[in-house]
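Thread: Newbie trying to understand structure tokens

Hi all, I'm a second-year student working on a class project, and my supervisor (Dr. K.) asked me to get a predicted structure for one chain before our next meeting. I've only ever worked with sequences, so writing a 3D structure as a token string is new to me. If someone could post the tokens and maybe explain what I'm looking at, I'd be very grateful. Here's the chain:
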Amino acid sequence: MAFLDESGFLLIPNVRRTWAPRGETPIVRHRYRHDRISAISAVTVSFRRQRVGLYLHFHRENVSQIEVALFLHYLLRQIRGPIVLLWDGGSIHTGQAVREFLRRHPRLHVEKFPAYAPELNPDENVWGHYKRELANGRPDDVAELLSRLGGITQDVRSRSALLRSFITASDLPSFLRT
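---
Reply by user tm_fold:
Sure, no problem. This is what the structure looks like when written as tokens:
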């Protein structure tokens, strides 16, 4: 089973609560640039629920139906056997390239989450974790942001308990979470 979602990361800092000496407002200086990294990922759970995984791709442009189809191809190469994929009803999931890809690969079975229900998708928790890790940071350029995202990815992939927590923290029915 796989849970898929997309997200984006800007060079503009994601400001969160932080510490500062009493009476001194913390200041995060940054360049006001709108450069970004777009991302697509899937949290996976084996049918026996013994293994969890994280697969992702980063892009310098917005994720389109083409990138979605390429990512699905990547998933099929990495995971053996049938895959049940759950995702939201985003328009990039219904484009011609994705429809053709799904038609040619019957071992990939797709289901949609209900509309306006991001709390059901464990992959939303992945993106929340990434954004918390990047909070109050100020990368100078896209290469630095991409390097930081790579470091977070290595950390997340090495911690199966963290990956599992993304699934258990979602509002999925319990038979899908355990």
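A couple of things are worth pointing out once you decode it. The mean pLDDT is 88. Helices lie at 65-78, 96-104, 122-134, 142-157, 160-168, 174-177. Feel free to ask follow-ups in this thread.
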